[in-house]
Amino acid sequence: MPEGGASISKPSAGPAGTGAPEGTPDTGRGGKPHTAPDGTAHGTRGAGAAARRTVPGRRASLLVTLLLGGLTATPPLAMDMYLPALPEVTRSLHAPAATVQLTLTACLAGMAFGQLLVGPMSDRWGRRRPLLAGLAVYVVATVLCAFAPTVELLVAFRLAQGLAGAAAIVIARAVARDLYDGVAMARFFSTLMLISGLAPILAPVVGGQILRVTDWRGVFVVLAVIGVLLAAVVWAKLPETLAPADRHDGGVGETLGSMRRLLADRVFTGYTLAGGFAFASLFAYVSASPFVVQEIYGASPQTFSLLFGLNSIGLMVMGQINGKVLVGRVRLDRVLGVGLAVVLVAATVLLLLSLGVFGETGLTPVAVALFVLMSAMGVTLPNTQTLALLRTKHSAGSASALLGTTSFLVAAVVTPLVGIAGEDTAVPMAVVQLASALVATACFLGMCRPWKNGTSTKGGGV
User: What per-residue confidence (pLDDT) applies to 251?
Assistant: First the structure.
């Protein structure tokens, strides 16, 4: 029972968490391969066979599933609950909008670099201890944010909050990779999206209501309480999913070598970059929409919160269609390609609306275009993660760290750009969204080359 938690039993054969060398195909009875290292299904067994590769006893319990969903909700909670308060923060701390948006950038940068640290730590010491340590520091940093007297200190505390909160993101993905493979992993990620998708729906609504009774500092108090609750449940209920035999004993050199091998895989890197730039397109909306919706179109914080929640519902519903309907029936590469195409179309429409090509328009057409873009993320983001993680097993923490770091780092870089022209135009937001979507599509087509790698054949695997 390592690190204070009941260890989930680990089978002895096959790549679904089995100790087989990375790149070894899973074999069933009779030695017939089921799934290649890139997730390509072979043989006559269909999607059901791939799903059965998740060995009984290693599936996550309902409570653990809910907990992992809660952990993956840490970023939207830390970001989205705070969004309705951004205009108030600019007034309270006497800071320009571009400077206040740096509080988002700092948190994103912290989450990006924190994952590079915590991911390899979890491969070496298991999942529980780094997660608990990260949550403890996250709570302290969040309390400090609530009492920040200046915008400069708020930026610094948000950086610390992001660094610590990274543990929740990267380890939740690594635990999922410990427990699942193939079709089962794709479906589990969609389940996590259903759970964590509630956070961006509820967070801005809760944030808007908090602002009715207190100021923006109260938002951070609520976030700190949520962090304490998550830490308590992890301590009491989350079992260790990485057995001691599968941990890495090496130091920095082995960690860097593992990441170098992952990045040398062109397809893994392609999916990682595609997911990172798609996330940047989404986060351009997250960081700019409070000003676009409230300052340009005159909506109240409560109206903004409701629109934001509606967009999150679209993302969540599409995530469930992806996991319950498409996975195992349609190639994930094909679904990912369609998702990226929809993002491109929606971002193009947003840019044309912002430039006034269709004349003077109100909030409704902009809100519709944003809804379509956000909904498409429901099939884009989980599939880039699944397809990338299918290419690794024994460095799941490092792979998860690279995925998360890329996404948050790219988002941190583009976030200040959406406010570069001030608060009176949505053009920068639309330009960043379109440019990010174009780069994501280029990485997907140019590096993953889905027409060649054969990933996820219809009816057989992912």
Answer: 58
